[in-house]
């Protein structure tokens, strides 16, 4: 259940990023992990947050493609370390949406 929750949370963050990128007309990412890089380049999220999210995007791939042999200690570590990152992402995205009033 925790693995699936983490996977969905990360996928939702990526989807939010993709929507912002598309609506704002930013350059199109060639791979998922590039979404957070583009958001940082466009000053939607901070560079520090982008660095944290880059690792989380990689962990999503582990969750999606390697769930049979998944180390539960790694899942727990990413859950504990991820919660503050998820909150920071939500706050920075909300700040961007609030600042622009709405997306284009």
Describe this protein's structure:
There is one protein chain. This protein has helices spanning 2-24, 34-41, 47-65, 72-100. The protein is an all-alpha fold and 104 residues long. It has one domain (2-100): bsu32300-like (Four Helix Bundle (Hemerythrin (Met), subunit A)), CATH 1.20.120.580. It starts with a helix and ends with a helix. The model has no long low-confidence stretch (mean pLDDT 86).
Give a brief outline of the structure.
With 104 residues, this protein is an all-alpha fold. 76% of the residues lie in helices and 0% in strands. It has helices at residues 2-24, 34-41, 47-65, 72-100.
Features:
104 residues, 4 helices, Four Helix Bundle (Hemerythrin (Met), subunit A)
Calculate the terminal CA-CA distance, rounded to whole Å: 36 Å
For CATH, the homologous superfamily is named as: bsu32300-like
Low-confidence stretches: none
Query: What is the CATH-assigned architecture?
Result: Up-down Bundle
CATH fold-level topology? Four Helix Bundle (Hemerythrin (Met), subunit A)
Q: What is the 3D form?
A: globular
Q: Can you give the mean pLDDT? A: 86
Q: Given the helix and strand composition, which structural class is it?
A: mainly alpha
Give the count of structural domains. 1
What's the gyration radius in Å? Answer: 14 Å
Total DSSP helices: 4
Give a count of the beta strands, DSSP E runs of length 2 or more.
0
Strand content: under 5%
Helix content: over 70%
């Amino acid at each position: 259940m925790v693995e699936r929750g983490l996977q969905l949370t990360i996928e939702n963050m990526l989807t939010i990023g993709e929507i912002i990128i598309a609506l704002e007309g930013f350059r199109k990412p060639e791979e998922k992990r590039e979404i957070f890089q583009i958001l940082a380049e466009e000053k939607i999220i901070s560079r520090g947050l982008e660095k944290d999210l880059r690792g989380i995007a990689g962990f999503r791939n582990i969750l999606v493609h390697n769930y049979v042999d998944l180390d539960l200690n790694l899942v727990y570590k990413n859950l504990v370390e991820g919660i503050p990152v998820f909150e920071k992402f939500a706050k920075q995205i909300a700040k961007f949406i609030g600042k622009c009033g709405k997306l284009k």
